[in-house]
Amino acid sequence: MDIAAGRGALGLGLVVVGVVVVAVLIGAFALGVRVKRREPPRPTPEEQPRLPEDGPVREVRENREPDEVPRSDHRLTPHQLSGHGHGHGDAGTRTDSSTDRPRWEEGSSGSFGSGGAGGR
Questions:
Q1: What is the 3-state secondary structure (H, E, C) of the chain?
Q2: Which residues are CB-contacts of 41 (< 8 A; sequence separation ≥ 6)?
Q3: Does the predicted TM-score (pTM) go above 0.90?
Q4: Which residues pair with 65 in a beta bridge?
Q5: Per-residue confidence of the chain (120 residues) as pLDDT tens digits?
Q6: Taking Cα atoms as reference points, which of 76, 68, 115 lies closest to residue 93?
Q7: Fewer beta carbons within 10 Å, N or C terminal of the chain?
Q8: Rounded distance, CA 98 to CA 94, Å?
């Protein structure tokens, strides 16, 4: 008789836990709906930004190549490189003399070690 009473209490406990979980889910859904209603509406297609008639503003199409790293007898750290005309240790660039755009090799995926014919 005690075993049956224990199973009944376990079953009742599982039902209570299930009801609590369902209540929490319903509450979370209701909260999400309220938050969504307070958001501004999505812009209509007419409100979307458009390109100017004469094309993109301040767009420059050019190839860049890196500046040479200064030669030194000791290893240079990034903050030492920033003293060479650049801001935060980043390497500078200059306009490339070539106007040809770089292209992927035929048969190459463009990443290291994947997809190409082996041994090239």
A1: CHHHHHHHHHHHHHHHHHHHHHHHHHHHHHHHHHHHHHCCCCCCHHHCCCCCCCCCCCCCCCCEEECCCCCCCCCCCHHHHCCCCCCCCCCCEEECCCCCCCCCCCCCCCCCCCCCCCCC
A2: none
A3: no
A4: 94
A5: 455 556 778 888 999 999 999 999 999 999 999 999 999 999 899 999 888 888 777 767 777 777 777 777 888 777 766 655 545 545 667 777 777 766 666 666 656 555 555 554
A6: 68
A7: N
A8: 12
